[in-house]
Amino acid sequence: MRPRPALFAVLTSLAATALAVSNAVAAPTPPADSVSPAVAPAATDTDGDSLPDTWETNGYDANGDGVVDVNLPALGANPKKKDLFVEMDYMSGRLATTAALDRIVQVFASAPVSNPDGTTGVAIHLDAGSARGTKYDLGGGNEVTYDADLNPSGTQTTAIKTASFASARKAVFHYMLWGDSYDGGCSSGQAFNIPNDTFIVTVGPKCNWNATDDINVGTFVHELGHNIGLKHGGADHLNYKPNYLSVMNYWFQLGGVLKADGTKYWGYSSVQPTSINEARPDERVGLGSLGAGYLTKWKCPNGTTRTTAGAANQPIDWNCDGDTTDSTTAADINGDKTTSTLIAQNNWANLVFGGGAVGGGSELQSKTPASELQELTHEEWTEMQHR
């Protein structure tokens, strides 16, 4: 992953590595459940959501005693439509509003993802217990003791999860925590691995995030994106790509993907615009035809940030010299001090539904180490607002 512009705690892959870092913050250990496969054997999964048809039709018997432990049909599961289940524990004052949860549900419901029942979209089932009404009460979701700094984050998150998350749910529900901050820093959240079954959102008062619905929605969707296989750069970890139109991109995590009609989009990319070779970006084509309907941002050589005035399929002045005719002039448009080929991704076409302990299969997914999951900090976000 490219060098970061702001100072924050550097994460490492596992506590066992115990790498020393410059700020002496302890490295997080990925939550224990994130490295264990589901116990149940692989089975027919018509909709490809990693929840076997038998679970979604009859319920999930976690220990094989003939008693259903997680009644998926009663929770709204459908064997012919992709489902995601997320239990949300929370510290006092940190749980997102009902309006924000509604927006998260809508992001997934409107996804261009096909299902065997002929519908599109992903049904996401959020469980906040009784705190947000019956719509978001699936029998879990707990308020946990307030801790302004989860440190070390992996160990602390695992302890909270172990105490408040029913073990029978591990194969069905992703687990997340609405917290304040972690590892002595001010990063917005953490997913520990890609893909995974656990994540935290930490845009709390310790770092003066002033977490609006936009910030909570964007960060929740971003961190859950890591759980379901998505990276900061699409197929790689390069960030701030102008052609990567997703909340997985830091440009858009907290402010939304910019649309040419003045609206904002708070989900994953559904298009893969043309790749951009920073050694010779062609200003005349912008993001190509798939950039129509979107605006985008990029970095100028002097470090300032620009946003397109019109749709991003139009010519773009990548080197900020006042014209849009250059095709052979190098420009570091994602600001990482290198010239790379910036490749975008259609996120919705690349979701991984079985991560960590979630799912009915026994095959472990490959993991991205935690050292590559350095997340957007409050300092970076503040700097963005003043460029």
TrEMBL record:
Keywords: Signal. Residues 27-52 are annotated as: Disordered. Residues 1-26 form the signal peptide. It comes from the Bacteria. The keyword Signal applies. GO terms for molecular function: metallopeptidase activity. This is Uncharacterized protein. The lineage of its organism: Bacteria, Bacillati, Actinomycetota, Actinomycetes, Propionibacteriales.
